[in-house]
Write a structure and sequence with these properties.
156 residues; mainly beta; Pnp Oxidase, Chain A; six-stranded antiparallel barrel; 3 helices; 13% helix; elongated
Length: 156
């Protein structure tokens, strides 16, 4: 059970605030349905209007999208300096996009996947819902964990 005096309250973000935050980062997590089970993959994305686009190669992500276009993308950030954390979730449909289309020309140039080789498929996420939360922490809300007791997390 959590004490409500210690737990920070999450602010619900507007769609406009969500899109602004999504534009401040370029890495998210794509959730797809693989053989009836959820799976999650990191993706480097760009915003194109009110949709996200990313490149992928042939493999599990592309096969899952072709089987079931219902997907979710989550992106987040934490600023220890400013005591702010946020998370945005987009739920919608994935569709193949043509990299030759004029509206994508400038956006596609900025897409550089971590594994750039063989990422010839351009996917657009057309949102059905866009939701987000922001949490502001102050010094009284920080965790006091001795360094020896801290759990080390690997790089994402």
């Amino acid at each position: 059970m959590r004490e409500h005096t210690v737990a920070p309250q999450a602010d619900i973000l507007t769609a406009e605030q969500c899109w602004k935050l999504l534009g401040e980062t370029s890495v998210g997590r794509l959730a797809v349905n693989v053989n009836g089970r959820p799976d999650v993959f990191p993706v480097n994305y760009e915003i194109d209007g009110e949709s996200l686009i990313f490149r992928t190669g042939y493999g599990t992500k592309l096969h899952a999208i072709d089987e079931d276009a219902n997907v979710a993308v989550e992106a987040d950030a934490i600023s220890a300096e400013f005591g702010i954390a946020w998370s945005v979730v987009i739920k919608g449909r994935a569709e193949h996009a043509s990299p030759e289309s004029l509206e994508l020309n400038s956006t596609v140039r900025g897409l550089f996947p971590w594994q750039g080789v063989g990422k010839t498929h351009l996917i657009r996420i057309v949102p059905e819902t866009v939701t987000g939360r922001r949490i502001t922490l102050d010094a009284s809300m920080t965790w006091n964990v001795p360094l020896a007791a801290a759990i080390r997390a690997g790089l994402e």
